[in-house]
Amino acid sequence: MKKILSTREMLKKAQKEGYAVPAFNIHNLETLQVVVETANELKSPVILAGTPSTTEYAGGDYLVSMAKVASEKYDIPIAIHLDHFEDVEKIKGYVREGFNSTMIDASHEAYEDNIRIVSEVVEYAHKFDATVEAELGRLGGQEDDLVVDEKDAMYTNPDQARDFVEKTGIDSLAVAIGTAHGLYKGKAKLDFDRLKEIRAKVDVPLVLHGASDVPDELVKKAIELGICKVNIATDLKIPFSDAVKRYFNDNPNANDPRKYMTPGKEAMKEIVKHKILLCGSNGKA
Ligand code: 13P
């Protein structure tokens, strides 16, 4: 049986060749299907990301099984990743269940505590050949049940980033350079000088969270400057649900999920395509 992959080789290749692997937040069979089918059509490596409430909603075991089916079916690199997990014991459980890539988000902790918590996850995950992403600095906005007020958001300090990577042994670093989770109140502004400095000081792949609602040219520039993984959630959810809403408006008596889910999947597919092309990961499988 073909294995679902960790993000290690995938992101290293992206770093070397100057593109990014998209990490799409999926929630159920339908959203997972759209992502893997589209990635396969464009021959793109892809990361399936699940937040804590997604694993609770869909079941970690179901998600791993669906990712395994996709890996068997398609000849592209597919990884399954825990996104924004804060609970170390839960991470350990899901890693044992087959998630071979995880984020431990201890960015809200004091610096030394962030290092301690992340190091514990790295030590555990590496025994299972699973990769670990951690965040330094703090993104504003809402992801899952996690809400960070703008005033509590904090940019990544490049010198601290180097120290953090050395001390924790993480495989990739999520940077805070101005993006936020969800939709922006004004226009997204990214601190590219800071990103350049982090890239110069840190050798692991860099991750951009909160990439929805950020103009394409800014995401492109971030990738040129060294971002190797781009996380996308909100930009997929909105067209999916809008299309389903439209379907019910037009067909108020509809009740067949196979019918009303289909326009949602089609709308989401267009965005997945667009994001893969934006990341430049097409043809890189
Ligand atoms: P968006 O919802 O802004 O796309 O953020 C997704 C994300 O960063 C998931 O970790």
Automatic annotation (TrEMBL):
Keyword vocabulary terms for this entry: Lyase, Metal-binding, Zinc
Pfam families reported for this sequence: F_bP_aldolase (PF01116)
Superkingdom, natural source: Bacteria
UniProt name for this protein: tagatose-bisphosphate aldolase
Co-factor note (free text): Binds 2 Zn(2+) ions per subunit. One is catalytic and the other provides a structural contribution.
Binding site for Zn(2+) 2: D105, E135
Entry's EC annotation: 4.1.2.40
Molecular function in Gene Ontology: tagatose-bisphosphate aldolase activity; zinc ion binding
InterPro entries listed in its UniProt record: Aldolase_TIM, Class_II_FBP_aldolase, FBA_II, TagBP_ald_KbaY/GatY
Any one GO biological process: D-tagatose 6-phosphate catabolic process
Residues involved in Zn(2+) 1 binding: H84, H181, H209
The UniProt record lists the keyword Lyase: yes
Binding-site positions, dihydroxyacetone phosphate: G182, G210, A211, S212, N231, I232, A233, T234
Pathway(s): Carbohydrate metabolism; D-tagatose 6-phosphate degradation; D-glyceraldehyde 3-phosphate and glycerone phosphate from D-tagatose 6-phosphate: step 2/2
Active site per the UniProt annotation: D83
Cofactor(s) of this protein: Zn(2+)
Magnesium as UniProt keyword: no
